[in-house]
Amino acid sequence: MHTTAQKLNGSEIFFECLRREKVDTIFGYPGGALLKVYETLYDVTDIKHILVRHEQGATHMAEGYARATGKPGVVLVTSGPGATNTVTGITNAYMDSSPMVIFTGQVPSSLIGNDAFQEADIVGITRPITKHNFLVKDVRDLATTIRKAFFLATNGRPGPVLVDMPKDILNATCEFIWPDSVDIRGFKPTITCHANQIEKAAKKIAAAKRPLLYIGGGVISSNASKELTLLAKALNIPVTMTLQGLGAFPASEPLNMGMLGMHGTYWANQAVNKCDLLIAVGARFDDRVTGKVDTFAPQAYKIHNDIDPTNVDKNIKVDLPVVGDSKDFLSQLIKALPEKSENHDTWLAEIDVWKKQCPLTFTVENDSLKTEFVISTVSEETEGNAVVVTDVGQHQMWTSQYYHFNNPRSIITSGGLGTMGYGLPAAIGAAFGIQDRPVVLFCGDGGFMMNIQELVTAVHYKVPIKIFLLNNSFLGMVRQWQELFHQEKYSFTDLDDSNPDFLKVVEAFGCKSMRAENPAQAEAAIKEALAYNEGPVFVEFRVIKKDMVFPMVPAGGSISDMLLERLNPKTMV
Amino acid sequence: MKHLISVLVENKFGTLNRVASMFSARGFNLQSISIGETEDPEISRMTIVTRGDDQIVSQVLKQLNRLIDTIKVTDLTHQPHVERELLLMTLKLSKATQHEIFELINVFKGKVVDIKQKSITIEVIGSPDKINTTIDIFRPYGIRELARSGAVAIHRGE
Ligand SMILES: Cc1ncc(C[n+]2csc(CCOP(=O)(O)OP(=O)(O)O)c2C)c(N)n1
Ligand SMILES: [Mg+2]
């Protein structure tokens, strides 16, 4: 135990704990319950506090920071409305397993339960959307609680942890004691995979004729890309990834199959359909991946590695569960593999045929612009090495198809919750963590408006993000479903009459801005934006209105039955 | 089928809520839940009765384990265990029925805890099945009020 004889108040203890946890950046917004904390912060020089413009923005920034760096994102907000504004961001982080610690101010202990001014039962509200949460009842528990919160957020399956700090606790004083270690008897995640299971998995892999690696975000969060690449290449096994898994295996490798699932590639879904061995690593058989579960990988023996035992046999019954960290799983497997295994050339050739049958393509016309073109161009210009953040909608799915991710921690997107408004703040957060690669945001015209206030934050801190707005004047993804499944009743999705003049809006925020309406302008604008590093830069791409994301598995359909193109081409006008 | 699950949890505020809200959030059946301190004041024991097929019950057990405040989760269903429930029940009392009521209380090894001119309060302890039967048998005499504790259970000793 580390003790300083000197007494500190709760606010000082708070910052001392952040230092011990090596926190360099926090995203916050002040208020009554946090006055003492902000008083202390006034003289803190070694921790950077980023003032956001809405607490939801703070949570997405912290998550963007966490996903880009692998370090926990930290949020600081006041009680009541400050706390309730974090709910969407916390849920988002929970669904996508991002490590985050959220600190909320609370009314003084003596007033809790009295409907005091700016009181909200945030511990009660966030119980189902946090990995765990705490209400601090005594200043002497503050340091231990913070230590536990960081420990829980970052160990096992990562997730958000909330610490609620009443105002009187932040004022009270006590000796600062930093516990050397944490022991939470109810939290003992299995990290090391069972050797027997590994041995069985290795045998199956060696014998498989048509194996397929199905890779999820767990491989990214356990930093296991190197191991994955080694394994896949050693055995010539094709790799398909989920939205959150993209980048775990380099797109430049011939074994890369791109994404699977609802808007996955035709060949990846065909491969799932025909494989005799499916090796799921750090993935959870989400319904956007499996489609109809009874017809998912019907011929395959299924191996499933995940650090969270509840993910095993939740959506799909597997043949060989292997609970443990994905990095451990992959490294143990590499060691356990026999010298000789099947040659998969026939299998790869089969996949190649599917790839040639239905490649991902789009047409380019001189006088109109498509989102696919913009994303492809950015992918080429950045050589697949940018950190790419998206919002939610069609542009998000096109990003998964046309940006060729060559590195892990490079796609930052709201997968589980599908939160519009996530992109802009997440990009800002990512850029606070990553300086050696460009941070690019692809955003829709609908979602951009949902957290546009954070443009102030980007401008104020000169955050060099590239904001690429794909303006199709529609809530495009909803429009797509309306066209396909709801008799073309475009109910409340046409934004043409109501969207603002985005250039004027962005200029008013003090952000550099450009517009592109055709491929030539788009290319020039992308180059200029990528070369600009003085602060944020915004490009509005006026893209065609009625473009559709294909291929597509209709919700609840089998992934073997993909829609490959528009049902009714005349709606294209 | 019915499962009887024993869970050791941290004796902290909010723990019961965490468990109960996990059941409702995931749509699991929750027939009864009871909680009380153990020999260690920092630890409470919860007894949960739930229904579901093997796949669902296995998810219930894993989701319980996943909560940070749970220390140990045991499915007692197929292990030697003792299961008991307490029933408190107030019945209408009249000259005509009192004799039969007293006899039945004996049959069920119940106890009279209070008696008034027109009512009688009894306690019965037993397995939830026995409690169900007790209630059925007494129903015709007129039940004023009843309270059940929910099952509590432990492993049988070696
Ligand atoms: C907060 C929130 N509200 C509603 C939705 C439902 N939704 C999903 S995609 C979408 C349309 C997004 O439109 P836009 O941002 O313009 O992107 P596009 O699909 O046109 O690329 C909507 C409304 C959502 N995902 N999140
Ligand atoms: Mg749009």
UniProtKB/TrEMBL annotation, chain A:
Enzyme Commission numbers on file: 2.2.1.6
Major enzyme class: transferase
InterPro entries: Acetolactate_synth_lsu, AHAS_TPP, DHS-like_NAD/FAD-binding_dom, THDP-binding, Thiamin_PyroP_enz_cen_dom, Thiamin_PyroP_enz_TPP-bd_dom, TPP_enz, TPP_enzyme_TPP-bd
All copies of domain Thiamine pyrophosphate enzyme TPP-binding, residue ranges: 391-541
Cofactor(s) listed in the protein's UniProt record: Mg(2+); thiamine diphosphate
Catalytic activity: 2 pyruvate + H(+) = (2S)-2-acetolactate + CO2
Pfam families found in the cross-reference section: TPP_enzyme_C, TPP_enzyme_M, TPP_enzyme_N
Keyword Mitochondrion: no
Domain named Thiamine pyrophosphate enzyme central: residues: 198-333
Co-factor binding comment: Binds 1 Mg(2+) ion per subunit.
Pathway(s) it belongs to: Amino-acid biosynthesis; L-valine biosynthesis; L-valine from pyruvate: step 1/4; Amino-acid biosynthesis; L-isoleucine biosynthesis; L-isoleucine from 2-oxobutanoate: step 1/4
GO biological process: isoleucine biosynthetic process; L-valine biosynthetic process
GO-annotated molecular function: acetolactate synthase activity; flavin adenine dinucleotide binding; magnesium ion binding; thiamine pyrophosphate binding
Name of protein: Acetolactate synthase
Organismal lineage: Bacteria, Pseudomonadati, Chlorobiota, Chlorobiia, Chlorobiales
TrEMBL record, chain B:
Gene Ontology BP annotations: isoleucine biosynthetic process; L-valine biosynthetic process
InterPro entries in UniProt: Acetalactate_synth_ssu, Acetolactate_synth/TF_NikR_C, Acetolactate_synth_ssu_C, ACT-like_dom_sf, ACT_dom, AHAS_ACT, AHAS_small-like_ACT
Pfam families xref list: ACT_AHAS_ss (PF22629), ALS_ss_C (PF10369)
Pathway it works in: Amino-acid biosynthesis; L-isoleucine biosynthesis; L-isoleucine from 2-oxobutanoate: step 1/4; Amino-acid biosynthesis; L-valine biosynthesis; L-valine from pyruvate: step 1/4
A cellular component term, taken from the record's GO annotations: cytosol
Domain of life of the source: Bacteria
Protein name: Acetolactate synthase small subunit
Organism name: Chlorobium phaeovibrioides
Lineage: Bacteria, Pseudomonadati, Chlorobiota, Chlorobiia, Chlorobiales
